[in-house]
Amino acid sequence: GAGVSQTPSNKVTEKGKYVELRCDPISGHTALYWYRQSLGQGPEFLIYFQGTGAADDSGLPNDRFFAVRPEGSVSTLKIQRTERGDSAVYLCASSSSGGWDTQYFGPGTRLTVL
Amino acid sequence: AQTVTQSQPEMSVQEAETVTLSCTYDTSESDYYLFWYKQPPSRQMILVIRQEAYKQQNATENRFSVNFQKAAKSFSLKISDSQLGDAAMYFCAYRSPQGGSEKLVFGKGTKLTVNP
Q1: Are residues A44 and B106, on separate chains, in Cβ contact within 8 Å?
Q2: Interval B106-116: pLDDT, tens
Q3: Which of A33, A55, A104 sits opposite B100 (nearest CB)?
């Protein structure tokens, strides 16, 4: 079946602009995760959804970052007033029901803030 | 907070040879999960192998195996009969079993080059 998909693949924006990054999880997966991977680093956790609700948003760096998953499937990561330091690859992952289940990752969105 | 350390930024191996990637972690928990993920240039993270801390037997998946030393907090990955397709970034990751804490904590990764 189809894996996790993310759009766009690449996004270039200017400092101060607003961006939205989309994640389509594997069909039927209730758990969804966002990670951020800066150059030369491992992924860092941002937020975890179980169904429609954010079960853990402790990784969001500040209030410019927000994520939603209104119908329990597709999720959107929203970044307001982007800064150059936000440039990174944003990875989305989903798992069947969380917990011990394997997290399946998408190919990521590379965000570049000029 | 848990931390994961991969002390080898880069490693290389000859095709068909064996290579071991190192990973250490810091935690005060007695039970947890450990993972190795592979990230090729396509950026998509792929699970290679996983280990539950309460299981003493080392996990094995075909050519991939781990050496889990709980007391030393060490979790190394051994790749046997290396193939060109094994070339990628490899990340070690830790996950707490506590409910509500589903996040993976990753190391900085090791870049593996496979020479023909």
Answers
A1: yes
A2: 999 999 999 99
A3: A55
